[in-house]
Specification:
mainly alpha; 2 domains; 4 strands; 217 residues
Length: 217
């Protein structure tokens, strides 16, 4: 299968957005994945704060990030003066970002770290802000070859499926066909966050119907 991670040969330190941590928690193997990848991983203090609310406490996201911190799998970073100025610019005016996204991009712009962010608006702002750096996706972490090697194949497939179904992980349009081939049409139908879902689902349903008719389900 084509490598689904742009981080395969990139040891650049990473800074994670809030939604990335939610995806890693949803996949059930986030701690194991982050332990496996060779990149140093940072989390802005504002991202930690975003996960310190009633919903995150109820669904376990808050405990997940606190465990990562206490076990030193990730390092929390505060914004310095330069990063805070960038942050303020990102949270104000047209196209403003939420606190976690803005903090992650501000840290990336003021350090050598690469932002990991999935939301379209955040990725667009990142490309304009950080010359020469293309933001990574949550999928780049989960599908990193070293992370994959740390998981049995069936578990890796489960992790991708859960991140999409329960975390509503966003992925690049270019990766969609490879992900669907990995999951199969039945699981793909459960992942309404996939690019072009409404159009693609027709083909997946047709494929499932064909399999059922031929006894190859």
């Amino acid at each position: 299968m084509t490598c689904l991670s742009s981080l395969k040969d990139d040891p650049t330190p990473l800074v994670l957005d809030t939604s990335v941590l939610i995806n890693l928690h949803a996949c059930c193997y986030g701690e194991r994945i982050l332990r496996a990848i060779p990149n140093e991983v940072f989390v802005p203090a504002m991202v930690v704060a975003e996960l310190d609310h009633e919903t995150s406490h109820a669904n376990g996201d808050s405990v997940f990030i606190q465990n990562l911190i206490s076990q030193q799998i990730v390092k929390v970073m505060e914004l310095d003066e330069n990063a805070y100025q960038i942050y303020e610019h990102l949270v104000c005016g047209p196209g403003s970002l939420d606190d976690g996204e803005a903090a992650a991009l501000a840290l990336a712009a003021s350090t050598i770290a690469l932002p990991v962010i999935d939301e379209r608006k955040g990725r667009t702002r990142a490309k304009a802000l950080i010359s020469g750096k293309v933001p990574a996706w949550s999928l780049d972490l989960i599908a990193h070859p070293v992370a994959q090697a740390s998981l049995p194949k069936a578990v890796f497939i489960d992790a991708v499926h859960l991140a999409l179904r329960d975390g509503r992980m966003r992925i690049d349009e270019k990766s969609c066909d490879a992900i669907v081939a990995l999951l199969g049409p039945k699981r793909a139908l459960e992942c309404s966050c996939l690019p072009g879902y409404k159009v693609r689902r027709i083909g997946w349903m047709r494929e499932l119907g064909h399999r059922a008719a031929t006894g190859n389900e």
